[in-house]
Design the sequence.
């Protein structure tokens, strides 16, 4: 699945200057020279990576996506968000996608997703992928699970409040 999406996204003509095109080629060449390809990079990260078409149908989901959500990545392509998540979460995720389409640029958003360990909070970078004519052909997301970090921050805030309350008013 990752290979098919990589091929589809790579086949989309990109709007780039000649210098950027050369840079991209040298970056691809550098990866190839050490035996890596895009698919390997996508599968080695814990970041949840997905791509959707503009209508919201999933094209690809990474191993990181599966780890965060518990949804087997092989079952994701072709499905809509509403087929994968509870209604309230699906509505919010779809609205965030619509915001990226409307803005036409990358957005960073905190999102809630359902997973095997319950609802998780992810910090998501969503961005459009355009064809040579500037039309948005896909929305890609890179999501990092920040649930534990948030819990620790909340615990530290509670502890700080408890200490300041126990200390009483300052003279």
Sequence:
């Amino acid at each position: 699945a990752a290979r098919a999406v990589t091929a589809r996204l790579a086949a989309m003509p990109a709007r780039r200057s000649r210098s950027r095109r050369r840079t991209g080629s040298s970056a691809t060449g550098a990866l190839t020279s050490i035996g890596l390809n895009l698919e390997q990079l996508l599968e080695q990260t814990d970041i949840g990576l997905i791509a959707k078409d503009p209508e919201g149908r999933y094209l690809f989901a990474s191993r990181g996506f599966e780890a965060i959500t518990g949804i087997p990545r092989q079952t994701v392509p072709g499905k809509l968000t509403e087929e994968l998540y509870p209604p309230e979460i699906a509505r919010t995720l779809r609205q965030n996608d619509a915001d990226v389409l409307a803005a036409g640029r990358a957005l960073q958003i905190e999102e809630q997703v359902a997973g095997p360990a319950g609802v998780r909070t992810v910090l998501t970078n969503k961005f459009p992928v355009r064809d040579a004519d500037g039309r948005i052909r896909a929305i890609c997301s890179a999501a990092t699970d920040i649930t534990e970090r948030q819990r620790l921050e909340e615990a530290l805030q509670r502890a700080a409040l408890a200490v300041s309350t126990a200390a009483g008013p300052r003279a």
Notes: The first strand starts at residue 48 and ends at 52.
